[in-house]
Amino acid sequence: MVHVSRLPGAYDHNWSWQLRGSCREGAAGLFFHPSGERGAAHDERDEAAKAVCAGCPVRTECRRYALAAREPYGVWGGLTEDERHRLLSRGLHRQAALA
């Protein structure tokens, strides 16, 4: 569950970065796996989503948001939910948010 208390609020300047995201051009399903997806299909979808993120002009903002909000699902800023969870559990989220 997203921790709403960590979100920056409803001010447009806090969220306008989302309008410039490369993910807005493609299928949203690429960034969120269907229920029960496993194995090669799961890994290939994650890699395809991360490839979109790699060239995204707002990747840093997206990653920063996902780590701060503890976004539980999907690929955000080039990180999967498992990668974000590992960074957060190791206390490395501040460094990763800037990468």
TrEMBL record:
Residues reported in the UniProt entry to bind [4Fe-4S] cluster: 23, 53, 56, 62
GO terms, biological process: cell redox homeostasis; negative regulation of DNA-templated transcription
An annotated GO cellular component: cytoplasm
Key words of the record: 4Fe-4S, Cytoplasm, Disulfide bond, DNA-binding, Iron, Iron-sulfur, Metal-binding, Transcription, Transcription regulation
Subcellular compartments: Cytoplasm
TM segment ranges: none
Family stated for the protein in its record: Belongs to the WhiB family.
Designated name of the protein: Transcriptional regulator WhiB
Native organism taxonomy: Bacteria, Bacillati, Actinomycetota, Actinomycetes, Kitasatosporales
Gene: whiB
